């Protein structure tokens, strides 16, 4: 089973998709987990998600962990299929809980009360690509598979 999850082709396109997803998502996760990039940090984000957004503490906990650790592990190419699947579910949830009411477009000019879901669709598309194709070139998944095949 682990071989199926980690199996990947030595593919440049998948490397680009995985790195794009991880690098775009990382600052958002770092805001929530560490308070970097103008974020509030773990405790304040957890409180905001549970009190203002009315999410259960476990969902709020998972949002923070998936965005932070998922991004790091995608950049490294470790268990990319698992993290990408988690990201797909996370962003589907974001669309339905926070973005759907604001329509498709992001709030580029501050003309609406919230963000639309176009960004989330891009994230979901990149994540689904990674779920289907794996990590691609220069991934820890590739190195782990090579090691397991030598055994």
UniProtKB/TrEMBL annotation:
Record's subcellular location: Cell membrane
Pfam family, one: DoxX
GO cellular component, as recorded: plasma membrane
Alphabetical UniProt keywords: Cell membrane, Membrane, Transmembrane, Transmembrane helix
InterPro entries noted in UniProt: DoxX, DoxX-like_oxidoreductase
Entry keyword Zinc: no
Chief site of localization: membrane
Membrane topology value: Multi-pass membrane protein
Domain of life: Bacteria
UniProt KW Magnesium keyword: no
TM stretches of this protein: 55-75, 82-99, 119-140
Family: Belongs to the DoxX family.
The protein's name: Putative oxidoreductase
Organism name: Maribacter vaceletii
């Amino acid at each position: 089973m682990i071989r199926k999850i980690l199996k990947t082709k030595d593919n440049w396109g998948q490397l680009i998709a995985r790195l794009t997803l991880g690098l775009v998502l990382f600052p958002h996760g770092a805001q929530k987990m560490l308070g970097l990039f103008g974020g509030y940090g773990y405790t304040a984000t957890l409180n905001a998600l549970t009190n203002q957004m009315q999410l259960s503490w476990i969902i709020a906990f998972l949002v923070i962990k998936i965005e932070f650790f998922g991004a790091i592990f995608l950049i490294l190419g470790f268990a990319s299929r698992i993290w990408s699947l988690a990201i797909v579910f996370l962003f589907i949830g974001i669309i339905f809980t926070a973005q759907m009411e604001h329509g498709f477009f992001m709030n580029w000019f501050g003309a609406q009360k919230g963000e639309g879901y176009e960004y989330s669709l891009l994230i979901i598309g990149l994540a689904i690509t990674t779920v289907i194709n794996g990590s691609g070139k220069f991934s820890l998944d590739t190195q782990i598979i090579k090691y397991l095949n030598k055994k």
